[in-house]
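Q: Structure for this?
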Amino acid sequence: MNLIVLFKDDFLNGSGKVRISGRRLKHVLEVHRACAGDELCVGISGGQIGRGKITHLTNEHLEMDVRLSIAPPPALPVTLVLALPRPKVLRRTLTAASSMGVKKIILINSYRVEKSFWQSPALVKESIERQLVLGLEQARDTVMPEVITKPLFKPFVEDELPAIIRDTTALLAHPQASASCPRGLEVRVTLVVGPEGGFIPYEIEKLTACGFIPVKMGERTLSVESAVPALLARLF
Amino acid sequence: MNLIVLFKDDFLNGSGKVRISGRRLKHVLEVHRACAGDELCVGISGGQIGRGKITHLTNEHLEMDVRLSIAPPPALPVTLVLALPRPKVLRRTLTAASSMGVKKIILINSYRVEKSFWQSPALVKESIERQLVLGLEQARDTVMPEVITKPLFKPFVEDELPAIIRDTTALLAHPQASASCPRGLEVRVTLVVGPEGGFIPYEIEKLTACGFIPVKMGERTLSVESAVPALLARLF
């Protein structure tokens, strides 16, 4: 936790004083091993970053005087469209994408997405937010990504995706592509990453018909959780 | 498992016929859902890749006729020097690095590496190999990376690292660096990645004195498990 994300409810009525407990307090006590008087890096959800000076610290709660002065780091100009991975991989990938500055993630269906994944507790709003906050805390960011689920492939690709990719470079990560993934882009990108086992030919056809260019990262097929950080680091 | 890695012991006395059981059989039955007559992608450890035609398949074992004809994908020209992460992160990072084509990994100590990590079962030879094989299976590779442990920071950096970095571009991933991580290199690289919480100033000094150039990937501090795929994808 390189930054503690603070929410409106943490502030004591309109002041610059906050009180936190629970997971964040535990981390401060056990990992930072902070004491009263120490300063911690903090930021307000969706807003500025600054320092919090600990004024009171017990095993029950922590109080800080907070001064916020710096803008959060810039976002990546990308919309990540991800075939819903299995729950464990989803959790890690949400945290990784959030830490790298992705602000819009669309989870889609695919033939090779197991139906049970759509019933996973990892898709509950609170669970998704928890993973995203972990990424923000890691990267000293405050701006929560938006996560949208689209459980029907065909209507999403036909009716909604064309508007999403307008004015963006639309790339489909596909290990069998002939083109290499571009590097160091400074344009807005819509990036589609398939399921374990890959998209089926019908899905590749629908996505290329929609305007996506298949690109690969060398000869190697990467797992979703490696592919997402690798693609983002290469693209931007 | 996009490729089944075969070992010498899997071959029935000197023939092109192999017999496997255990984890690999389970995967073929449950994930590939293969039948007798089907062909699977296989490769011999350290050697060529080809196809295995299933001649016999039960819940106890699988027999294949194997023809090998293709070289494994090229390795990345990198030596990865990694401050020993906590066991869970070590396992995932070994698999990710192996899948991306890293062939030499040196696990080192650092002030912020907890002593207990060096006693972890994740460092046992069999455990390391299991994670590396998972990466090879993912990326359709056959060449096992070499993993070396160096539990003493100072003697390693002073006495061994100078010879390791000779004729390589020596880079130290460091979120506070002023230089950006280079892209698309075609030279041999020695890449050092620090622990969670980062190297302490003394360690940074020792590494830069040894010849390492600190480089960063934007303003964001990434977790080790995101940083490794991100750095490798950006460098090569």
